[in-house]
Amino acid sequence: MKIILSIVAASLLLLISLSTCSASLAQFAGDWNNVDPNTGGITKLSIALSGASANVHVWGKCHPTDCDWGGVNAFAFAPDVSSDTVSQAQALMATFITTFSETTLFIRPQGSRLSVQSYTRFTDNSGRSNYASSDLFQKSTSISAVGTIAEIQPLQKYSKLQILPIMGKIGDN
Predict the structure, then answer these.
(1) DSSP conformation class of 41
(2) Residue 48's CATH number
(3) Which domain holds residue 55?
(4) In which residue ranges of the chain is pLDDT below 50?
C-alpha cells in the first residue's frame, strides 16, 4: 500500500511540475485584439518570434484610426535563472519610448488569452500622473490576404454529361 501511495504522490508531483513548466515563447506569437471593444488604451498587439527573440508591435486607441506605436524588441522571462526562455517563457516585457512618455508592458498568458499590464511614466514635465492599466487580449481570428488572388479555371470544360464505361465486372480481381 505504501508503494502505491508513493507512486501516486510522485505522479501528482510530476504532473504539477510539468503544468508549471509547459509555458513557451511560442504561446505569445500572433495577432491579439483587446477583448474590450470600447477600450481607450491598447487595442491590438502583434507578437513576432525569431528564435529566442520576440518583437511586440502595439496599436492604441485614436480617432479615426488606431495609433501605431511601432514595434520593439521584448525581453522574455522564465521561472528561474537556469531555465530556457524559449521553452519556458512565462512573461514578456516590452518598453515603448516616445518624446513625452515611457510605457512598459508586462505580457503574461492567461489561459488562451494574454494579460497585459501597462505602466506609463510621463517624461515631459507636463505634471500628468503616471498611471497603470490592465487589459485582456484574445488571439485574432481574422484572415487577411496580401496581393492578388489568382482566378481558378477548370482544367477541362464539359458541355454535356459524359458516362465513362466501367472496366471489368464486380468481383473480378
Answers:
(1) S
(2) 2.40.128.20
(3) 22-139
(4) 5, 8-21
Please tell me the predicted confidence (pLDDT) of residue 17.
41
Give the whole-angstrom CA distance, residue 93 versus residue 106: 5
How far, in Å, are 5, 7, 46, 67 from residue 2 at the CA level? 5, 9, 52, 63
Cα distance between residue 83 and residue 21, in whole Å: 9
Q: Give me the phi and psi of 127, to 5 degrees please.
A: 85, 0
pLDDT the model gives residue 69: 96
For the chain, how many structural domains are there in total? Answer: 1
Q: What is the pTM of this model?
A: 0.69
Quote the CA–CA distance of 47 and 59 in Å, as a whole number.
Answer: 12
CA–CA distance, 147 with 138 (Å, rounded to integer)? 27
- Interatomic CA distance for residues 103 and 131, integer angstroms: 10
The answer to the question of residue 112 being in a domain is yes
pLDDT digits (tens, 9 = 90+) for 73-108: 999 999 999 999 999 999 999 999 999 999 999 999
- Angle made by CA atoms 77, 49, 55, in degrees to the nearest 5: 75
The type of residue at 161 is L
